[in-house]
Amino acid sequence: MGRMVDCRGESVTRKYWTDGGDVIGYRPYPGFLSPFRTAMSESAAKKYLTAADAKHISLPWCQVEEFVNVENAGAEDLILCRATFPAGEAHLFHYHPGREEIIYVLEGQAEQWVGEEKKLLGPGEMALIPAGMPHMTFNPGPSTLKFLAILNNARGEEPMVIDCFREEPWVSHFTPIEYPPV
After folding, report:
1. For residue 60, how far is the Cα from the chain centroid?
2. Strands (DSSP E) along the chain, which ranges?
3. Residue 44 has pLDDT above 80, yes or no
4. How far apart are CA 106 and CA 123, in angstroms?
5. Model confidence over 19-39: pLDDT tens digits?
6. 133-146: per-residue pLDDT in tens?
7. Which CATH code is given to the segment(s) 51-173?
């Protein structure tokens, strides 16, 4: 096994957990994924999921396939969705209290706003959105946009999504598209 190094290039020691035989996890440095979670029972957690396991959600601006969450996979802390946006559609400025999010583009282009900064993302590119940070995803077209959204703190405070697209400064950055309420 190769040498593990931290972000400064210094060697680190792995600390392993076992279930009496097989290694079930490791922590490469103090505080990494701490506390290490093994609370999910074998019967409640799914290790492998298929498209049939996804919860399908139709929103006015996109189709969402929620693959991993507390209910369908027994996930302790993660949510994984695949969103499909037709050209010209947007998930307007909103934020997630207490939840970080990663947007990872699979196909098409995303005009991704994180706070007041925007960047055009293509396949293989991503944005890391800090907890509580207003953000927006717009498909400038011409093709369909598909991306993965990964959020932590699945059991976090509600509501999970708070819209802020009609508030300043967000309304000045992007004129809201009028969607029916969801």
Report:
1. 20
2. 15-18, 23-27, 55-58, 63-68, 78-85, 90-95, 101-107, 110-114, 117-121, 126-129, 135-138, 145-152, 162-163
3. no
4. 5
5. 344 433 333 333 333 333 344
6. 999 999 999 999 99
7. 2.60.120.10
| Alpha-carbon gap, residue 80 to 124, rounded angstroms | 16
6-18 in b/e form (b: 16+ CB < 10 A) is: eeeeeeeeeeeee
Count of other CB atoms within 10 angstroms of residue 58: 8
End-to-end CA distance of the chain: 51
Tokens 């293989």 correspond to 124
Q: Which of 88, 95, 97, 87 is nearest to 113 (CA)?
A: 95
Amino acid at 37: R
- Contact between residue 134 and residue 92 where contact means Cβ atoms under 8 Å apart: no
Query: What is the spatial distance between Cα 29 and Cα 34, in angstroms, rounded to a whole number?
Result: 10
* Positions of CATH 2.60.120.10 in the chain: 51-173
Residue 57: CB atoms within 10 Å = 13
